[in-house]
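Private note to self, pasted from the team thread so I don't lose it. Backbone tokens:
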């Protein structure tokens, strides 16, 4: 059956810092920031159909839904029935059937300072040159953020995340199994919560914020830029610090002081390991300075061993537990027990 290409063009002014929302499933996504005040989106559909006429008819049903407001633009794939944002997306193939299909590609150019909201399922995303507040929610798709800065919030079930910033970033991520690799000249704040995904961070950490990485079994790789104090909580966690440092504390609550201490980083894990090395990308080295003695850390009760996440939990249930952890409704131990399949009241 032949393939016919159809294109949907969308333009709407949103201003230099307006809101752009995109909700899709399956297509490849590119979002690029620019100096204009108009959001421009091109949706390309490769439609497999019996004729030009049939392709045109299918294209009419397959066009993305557009909602433009004052300073905002929302775009979403067509779906049937429930129109709630969090409802399951309808795959375009459901529209076509009988051997007919469509493959979409979405390319958006928006003001670089726009507020970005993205929701996707099985869609790979590349976003570049964005400096406004950004929020990404993805299931299964990989996420690449390049030449970005500003506040960035990411929720991901199994996709890998790669972030390369050109200025300060405030990073808040919540995931299940995908890996996170983040480099920035500086991090104003970092909060990364994951079940089994590994976390890699490189950049100077702001001393005015408390930075946290919490995992069940995921590892942390930290490239030291400037002075910092790393606190590690976890009986089954191995620590490898390859830069000059001082160690204090007990087995289940250890401190590693690099330079004069500086930024505070907490790594909390059931069985994940942590490694700290010199920065590779920034070219900066960690200063070696004398450190004042650190008061002894009072021992805390042993952390009970925790079984791995229960195979009976779905990705959505695991993510709900992580979100409860992020909101402070439960602590790491409670989250681990729930992920292991124990009841919420334990």
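Design output:
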């Amino acid at each position: 059956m032949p393939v016919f290409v159809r294109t949907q063009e969308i333009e709407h002014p949103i201003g230099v810092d307006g809101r752009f929302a995109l909700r899709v499933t399956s297509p490849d996504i590119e979002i690029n920031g620019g100096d204009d005040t108009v959001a421009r989106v091109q949706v390309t559909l490769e439609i497999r159909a019996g004729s030009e006429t049939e392709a045109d008819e299918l294209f009419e049903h397959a066009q993305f839904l557009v909602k433009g407001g004052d300073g905002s633009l929302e775009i979403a794939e067509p779906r049937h029935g429930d129109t709630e944002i969090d409802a399951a997306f309808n795959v375009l193939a459901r529209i076509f059937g009988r051997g007919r299909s469509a493959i979409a590609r979405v390319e958006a150019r928006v003001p670089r300072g726009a507020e970005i909201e993205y929701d996707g399922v099985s869609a790979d995303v590349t976003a570049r040159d964005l400096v406004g507040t950004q929020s990404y929610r993805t299931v299964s798709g990989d996420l690449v953020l390049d030449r970005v800065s500003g506040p960035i919030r990411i929720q991901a079930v199994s996709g890998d995340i790669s972030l390369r910033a050109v200025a300060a970033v405030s990073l808040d991520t919540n995931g299940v199994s995908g890996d996170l690799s983040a480099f920035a000249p500086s991090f104003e704040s970092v909060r990364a919560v994951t079940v089994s995904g590994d976390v890699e961070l490189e950049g100077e950490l702001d001393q005015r914020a408390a930075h946290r990485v919490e995992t069940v079994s995921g590892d942390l790789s930290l490239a030291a830029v400037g002075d910092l104090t790393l606190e590690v909580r976890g009986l089954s966690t191995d620590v490898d610090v390859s830069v000059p440092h001082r160690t204090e504390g007990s087995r289940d609550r250890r401190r590693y002081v690099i330079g004069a201490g500086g930024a505070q980083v907490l790594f909390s894990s059931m069985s994940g390991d942590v490694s700290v090395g010199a920065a590779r990308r920034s070219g900066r080295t960690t200063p070696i300075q004398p450190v004042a003695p650190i008061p002894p850390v009072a021992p805390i009760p042993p952390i009970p061993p925790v079984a791995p996440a229960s195979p009976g939990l779905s990705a959505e249930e695991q993510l709900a537990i992580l979100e409860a952890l992020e909101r402070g409704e439960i602590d790491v131990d409670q989250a681990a027990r729930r992920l292991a399949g124990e009841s919420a009241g334990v």
